[in-house]
Design goal:
Blueprint: E1 41-46, E2 59-64, H1 73-77, E3 86-91, E4 96-101, E5 179-182, E6 204-206, E7 213-215, E8 219-226, E9 236-241, E10 252-257, E11 260-266, E12 270-279, E13 289-297, E14 306-312, H2 324-329, H3 334-358, E15 370-374, H4 379-384, E16 387-391, E17 393-397, H5 402-405, H6 423-435, E18 443-449, E19 453-455, E20 460-462, E21 467-471, E22 474-480, H7 494-498, H8 519-537, H9 587-594, E23 615-620, E24 623-627, E25 632-639, E26 648-651, E27 665-669, H10 670-675, E28 686-692, E29 697-700, H11 703-706, E30 712-714, H12 730-737, E31 747-750, E32 763-768, H13 770-773, E33 779-786, E34 790-797, E35 802-806, E36 815-818, E37 827-834, E38 838-845, E39 854-855, E40 861-865, E41 872-880, E42 884-892
Parallel strand pairs: 2-3, 7-13, 14-17, 14-18, 18-22
Antiparallel strand pairs: 1-2, 3-4, 5-13, 6-8, 8-11, 9-10, 9-12, 10-11, 12-13, 15-16, 19-20, 21-22, 23-24, 24-27, 25-26, 25-28, 28-29, 30-31, 31-42, 32-41, 33-34, 33-36, 34-35, 37-38, 37-40, 38-39, 41-42
Length: 893
C-alpha cells in the first residue's frame, strides 16, 4: 500500500476532501500533519474496493493509527458477510475488530463530485447493496460512546470549525411485515436479495405469519393476498424463491385465485430470506411484484419424534396398488412409496402447526426423526441425487406373510370379518421387535401397511385397518396404502395432486368408503384418515367436529384457495376456501397437544415427571378441589345423555405463559359445572374427565358422589391443655386432669383412593392422628413396614404411643423416619407408588426433606398425596389384605 503524501493509500479510499492528505489517508489531521493522528481517529467512507466489491459501498470505517500502520484490506474484506451499512472500529495495535451496527437513517451522504456542495440526490440511496450511485461520503461527526471515546470531528486546515453537513433524507418505514418491490429479476440473477425501498401495490401480502418468526418445521404453510381482493380480484401465480440463489430449494409456483393464495415454503435450519413474486397477465405494467420475509427455522431435537414406518410382509414384493398409467409414469415400488409417505407427513406437520398457531399456542408441532439421505422434497434434489436431511421412514419386515396380512378375516371394512382388530397387534409386535423397546422407553409410531390390496371381487380392501391408540410404551397409528398412488411425492406435486379430478378406476384401486371418487378426494381420505389415527396416537378421542370426526374430507382446502368438482358431494367445489371452510383440529385436541411431550418447544417449562397424577379432595359446601403437580389443564363435562362426544368443558391454560399458566389447584363447585350444560341436561348424573399438564387424566364417573357423606369424616373434637404444672410430666398431668373438650368441631375430607382394595381378605381401615385433636401430642417419627409392597405404617408420638395402619410385615422392625421437631418439622404428605395395591411409600416433610422410598420403588405409578393450601393431614384411610391395597388421605382445615 503506497502511503506517499498526496496520493490515496488505496483505490478503496478515494480522496473526499480538498485539503492536503495525511500520511495514510486523504484527510487532514487536526494540526495539519499526519502526526496529529497518534491519538485521534479518522472516519472514511468506503466506496469501491477491488477485493470487497460493491458490498462495502457506503460502509463507515473508523481507523486507529496509534502505531502508524495503514488499514489492512483484509480487515475490510472480513466485513463483507455482515449486513450493510456497518460501523467498524479497528485498533491495529491490538488486532481487534469491533463491529457495531448503525441505523441507516444516521448516515450523511453527498454528491459524487469532490467539489460537492452538500446537495443530496434522493433518487437512490448509497446504503443499498445494489445501488449504482457511485458517491463517496465525507466523514460526519461521530458522537462519543463507550467504545469510541477519542473520536473527534475532522476539520479543514486553518478553519476553526468543521463545515456543517446536510442530514441524510429520512425514510418513512412501511407499516408492514414485509418489504416489497417491483421489477426485480429472478433469484438466479446473481443479485443478493435485500429489502428494497420501492413498493408495489400488487406485491404479495402474507397474512398468516409475521416477519422474523421462529418456526419449528421444515415445510411451512403460509397464506395471504395480492392487492385489494374487494376492489380488484386478480388471478395469477406466486413464485417462491428461497435464499442462496435457489441453492437451498428451487422456486415453486402456487396459484392465486380472486387475489388470495396459499403456499408451502421450504425452510433450511437457521435464517431464511424468502422472496414472493406475483405474476399475472392482467397487469399492463411489466415487471414482477415482490415481497420479502425473513423466517427462522429452529429444528427441535429435545422432544420425542413421531416415527414413520412402512410394514411389509416377510415375502412382500414391496409394491402398492396403482393404475397402469401411474405404474408406468412414476412406478409403485418401495422408493416411491417412501417419498409419498414422507410428503404426506410434512403435510400433517404443516397443517397441525398452523392449527396450533390459530389457537394461539404458537407454531408448535410434533417432529420427525431425520437422516442424511437423498433429498425428496423437490424433484430437482431427487433427480440430481442431492443429499439432505430428510425424514427417516423405517421399513419393517413382519413375521407374517402377505397372504396372512391380506386375510379377509383381518380386513377392517369386511363386514363378516371375525378379527378386524388383529392387524394392530401384528404391527405392534413387528415395531417392538424392530425398535427393541425396553420398559419405560416410549415410542410414537405412525405405520402404513404397504401390502394393502383392493379386491374388486369381494369389494373390500385387504390388509387395511385404520386404528390408533396406546399399548404399553408404544403409541401407534396404523393405516393402509390403498390411496398411496394419489399422494404427492414432493412439494411441486402438492397442487397437481389436490386438483387432479381423474376418476378413480375401481378395477385397480379402491374408492375408500365411496368418498374417493377422484384422485384429489383420495388424497384427502388417505392422508386425512391416517392423520385421524395419529390423533388417537396422541390421545385424542372422537370429537364433535374436526379431524377426529372425519372432517378431513375437506383437507384440500387447507392448502388450496379454490376447490374442484367433488364426486362425494356431486357439486362444484368452493370458489374461495376460507379459514372457516377448512378442516381443523378441535379445540380439545389442541389442548391435548399443548402439553404433549412431542409438541414441546425450547421455551417451554419442562413439567415434573415425578408425579403426573391428579388428586381430588371434596371440601364440603358442594365444592371439590382438584390438585396436580403438573397443573390442571382442562376439564371435560359429560351429561348423562348417552353422548360419547364431549361438547362442554372448562379450560385453565393461558396462551401467554410458557408453562401454560396452569393452576396446581382448582376448586370446582357443582353449580358451576351444571351451569355449563344446557337447561335440559343440568339434572342427573354428570361425568368429569380432568386433564393435567402432563397429559394424564382422572375420570369422575359421578360428580355428585364426591359431594356425598361417604367422603366426609367426623373428626373428634379438638382438645386443648391448661398450663402445665412444672412438678408433673405432661403425660402424667394429662391423665390426672383429663383434657377438657373444645366446642370447636371440624369435619375431615377423604381424597381419592389409590389401589383397588381387591386382595383376598382385604378389610377397610382408618385412623385419625392423635396430634390433630390433642395439642399435647407431638408426632416424632413414622415407622414403615414393607417388603416388595407396603405392609403398614405406624405414627409414633413423643410419649411412645404409636398408631398402626396396616400390618407389621416385611422387614423385621420396619424402617423409622424421624422428624426434626426442634426445627418444627412436621408431616406434609406422601409420595406413593401404586397400581392394584400400594407398592411403595416415601415420607415428605414441611422442611422439604424426603425419606427413601420404602417397598417397591419401581412398582405401579407415582402419586404425590399432599393437602392443598389451607389444609393439613388429619389421618389416613384405605384397606389392607395381605398388605395394604388401598390408601387415601384425610384432610381438614
Amino acid at each position: 500500500m503506497d502511503s506517499a503524501a498526496g496520493r490515496d493509500c488505496c483505490p478503496a479510499f478515494p480522496r473526499t476532501h480538498s485539503g492536503p492528505p495525511c500520511k495514510y489517508h486523504g484527510y487532514e489531521s487536526e494540526d495539519g500533519h499526519s502526526e496529529g493522528y497518534k491519538k485521534a481517529q479518522s472516519v472514511v467512507i468506503v466506496e469501491r474496493c477491488a477485493f470487497a466489491g460493491p458490498l462495502l459501498a457506503g460502509s463507515r470505517v473508523i481507523c486507529d493509527w496509534r502505531q502508524g500502520q495503514p488499514l489492512s484490506l483484509y480487515a475490510l474484506v472480513c466485513a463483507v458477510t455482515l449486513l450493510n451499512p456497518i460501523q467498524i472500529s479497528i485498533h491495529t495495535s491490538q488486532a481487534v475488530l469491533k463491529l457495531r451496527r448503525r441505523s441507516k437513517a444516521s448516515f450523511r451522504t453527498s454528491d459524487s463530485s469532490a467539489e460537492s456542495n452538500g446537495t443530496v440526490p434522493t433518487t437512490k440511496s448509497t446504503s443499498t447493496l445494489n445501488s449504482s450511485y457511485g458517491a463517496s461520503t465525507p466523514p460526519s461527526s461521530v458522537q462519543p460512546n463507550g467504545s469510541m471515546t477519542n473520536v473527534t470531528a475532522t476539520k479543514s486546515k486553518g478553519d476553526s470549525t468543521a463545515p456543517p453537513l446536510p442530514p441524510r433524507p429520512s425514510v418513512t418505514p412501511l407499516k408492514s411485515n414485509r418489504n416489497s418491490t417491483v421489477g426485480l429479476g429472478s433469484s438466479g440473477s446473481g443479485v443478493t436479495m435485500r429489502s428494497p425501498g420501492a413498493t408495489s401495490p400488487f406485491a404479495p401480502k402474507l397474512t398468516s405469519i409475521a416477519d422474523s418468526t421462529v418456526v419449528y418445521q421444515k415445510v411451512l404453510l403460509v397464506y395471504g393476498e395480492v392487492g385489494d381482493p374487494l376492489q380488484r380480484p386478480m388471478a395469477g401465480n406466486i413464485t417462491i424463491h428461497h435464499d442462496k440463489d435457489g441453492q437451498a430449494f428451487p422456486p415453486t409456483n402456487w396459484p392465486v385465485s380472486d387475489s388470495y393464495f396459499k403456499a408451502l415454503v421450504y425452510l433450511s435450519p437457521g435464517w431464511n430470506q424468502i422472496r414472493f413474486d406475483f405474476t399475472t397477465a392482467s397487469l399492463s405494467k411489466d415487471g414482477i411484484h415482490s415481497s420479502y420475509m425473513m423466517l427462522n427455522y429452529l429444528p427441535l431435537n429435545n422432544s420425542p419424534p413421531l416415527q414413520l414406518a412402512i410394514i411389509v410382509g416377510r415375502d412382500s414384493p414391496c409394491t402398492y396398488d396403482a393404475v397402469p398409467e401411474r405404474r408406468e409414469r412414476e412406478g409403485n415400488g418401495l422408493d416411491t412409496a417412501i417419498r409419498k409417505y414422507r410428503m404426506a407427513a410434512h403435510l400433517w406437520q404443516a397443517f397441525t402447526a398452523e392449527q396450533m398457531y390459530r389457537h394461539k399456542f404458537g407454531r408448535r408441532c410434533f417432529r420427525f426423526e431425520e437422516e442424511w439421505q437423498t433429498g425428496t422434497l423437490s424433484l430437482r434434489d431427487w433427480e440430481a441425487g442431492n443429499l439432505k436431511n430428510e425424514i427417516k421412514v423405517h421399513v419393517i419386515r413382519s413375521d407374517k406373510t402377505v397372504a396372512e396380512i391380506q386375510d379377509l378375516q383381518l380386513a377392517q371394512q369386511y363386514a363378516p370379518a371375525a378379527k378386524k382388530g388383529d392387524l394392530y397387534p401384528i404391527a405392534s409386535d413387528a415395531i417392538k421387535k424392530y425398535f427393541r423397546l425396553r420398559p419405560g422407553q416410549r415410542q410414537y409410531v405412525a405405520a402404513m401397511f404397504l401390502d394393502s390390496h383392493w379386491d374388486p371381487v369381494v369389494g373390500t380392501i385387504r390388509g387395511h385397518a385404520a386404528l390408533g391408540g396406546t399399548s404399553d410404551d408404544l403409541q401407534l397409528a396404523i393405516f393402509g396404502s390403498q390411496a398411496l398412488q394419489s399422494y404427492p411425492s414432493c412439494i411441486e406435486e402438492v397442487v397437481p395432486a389436490l386438483t387432479d379430478c381423474t376418476r378413480t378406476d375401481t378395477r385397480f384401486v379402491a374408492n375408500d368408503l365411496n368418498e374417493s371418487g377422484s384422485n384429489w378426494e383420495a388424497v384427502n381420505i388417505g392422508i386425512g384418515a391416517h392423520l385421524h389415527e395419529v390423533g388417537h396416537l396422541f390421545g385424542c378421542p372422537h370429537q364433535e367436529s374436526g379431524v377426529m370426526l372425519r372432517d378431513y374430507v375437506r383437507l384440500n382446502r387447507t392448502f388450496l384457495v379454490r376447490e374442484h368438482y367433488s364426486t362425494r358431494t356431486q357439486s362444484q367445489g368452493l370458489r374461495i376456501c376460507r379459514i372457516e371452510d377448512e378442516c381443523g383440529w378441535h379445540r380439545l385436541d389442541i389442548l391435548r397437544f399443548r402439553h404433549h411431550p412431542c409438541f414441546r418447544t425450547p421455551v417451554d417449562t419442562i413439567l415434573s415427571t415425578l408425579d403426573d397424577s391428579i388428586q381430588f379432595y371434596p371440601i364440603g359446601n358442594g365444592k371439590v378441589i382438584f390438585c396436580a403437580p403438573s397443573g390442571i389443564s382442562f376439564i371435560e363435562i359429560y351429561p348423562d345423555d348417552g353422548d360419547e362426544l364431549c361438547r362442554y368443558w372448562l379450560e385453565y391454560v393461558s396462551t401467554e405463559s410458557r408453562n401454560g399458566g396452569m393452576p396446581w389447584n382448582v376448586t370446582l363447585s357443582e353449580a358451576n359445572v351444571r351451569s355449563r350444560l344446557p337447561e335440559n341436561k343440568r339434572k342427573g348424573k354428570v361425568k368429569l374427565q380432568v386433564f393435567s399438564g402432563s397429559s394424564r387424566s382422572l375420570t369422575i364417573v359421578d360428580f355428585s358422589e364426591l359431594l356425598s357423606k361417604s367422603y366426609i369424616v367426623n373428626l373428634p373434637a379438638r382438645q386443648s391443655a391448661p398450663t402445665k404444672d412444672e412438678g408433673l410430666t405432661m403425660n402424667t398431668y394429662n391423665r390426672l386432669t383429663k383434657l377438657p373438650q373444645s366446642f370447636e368441631t371440624r369435619p375431615g375430607f377423604k381424597g381419592n383412593k389409590l389401589g383397588f382394595s381387591r386382595l383376598d381378605g382385604s378389610k377397610p381401615e382408618q385412623i385419625i392422628l392423635d396430634s390433630v385433636n390433642l395439642q399435647t401430642k407431638l408426632l416424632t417419627s413414622i415407622k414403615v413396614y414393607s417388603g416388595y409392597a407396603l405392609d403398614g405404617i405406624a405414627f409414633c408420638y413423643e410419649d411412645g404411643h404409636c398408631q398402626l395402619f396396616g400390618k407389621r410385615g416385611g422387614k423385621a422392625g420396619g424402617d423409622e423416619f424421624f422428624f426434626d421437631t426442634r426445627r418444627g418439622e412436621t408431616l406434609s404428605g406422601f409420595y406413593l407408588r401404586a397400581g392394584l395395591w400400594i407398592d411403595g411409600l416415601q415420607i415428605l416433610t414441611s422442611l422439604g426433606r424426603k425419606s427413601q422410598i420404602y417397598g417397591n420403588a419401581h412398582g405401579g405409578s407415582g402419586h404425590i398425596l399432599m393437602p392443598p393450601a389451607g389444609y393439613t393431614i388429619a389421618g389416613v384411610s384405605g384397606s389392607c389384605g395381605q398388605w395394604i391395597d388401598g390408601f387415601q388421605l384425610i384432610i381438614t382445615r
